Amino acid sequence: MPEVKCSVANCHYWGEGNHCNADAIMVEIDEHWDKKLDEKIGGEYVDSDHQDHSARISKDTCCHTFKPKH
Hints:
Distance between the termini: 26 Å
Mean pLDDT: 80
Order of helices and strands: EEEEEE
Radius of gyration: 12 Å
Number of helices: 0
């Protein structure tokens, strides 16, 4: 898995040095931010069944892997 950097320190998967420690990363387009994900990979909810082609720039995307720390 590639090194994933994340500055969202209140995420459950955030690690020292701004490293994401999730087993899988799910990135979706913003218009699907509330999509319910049913499939799990490495304990993380993902969706392997569809593809979108509407993201033009990084601001058009969001991370579904985020989970607030408790």
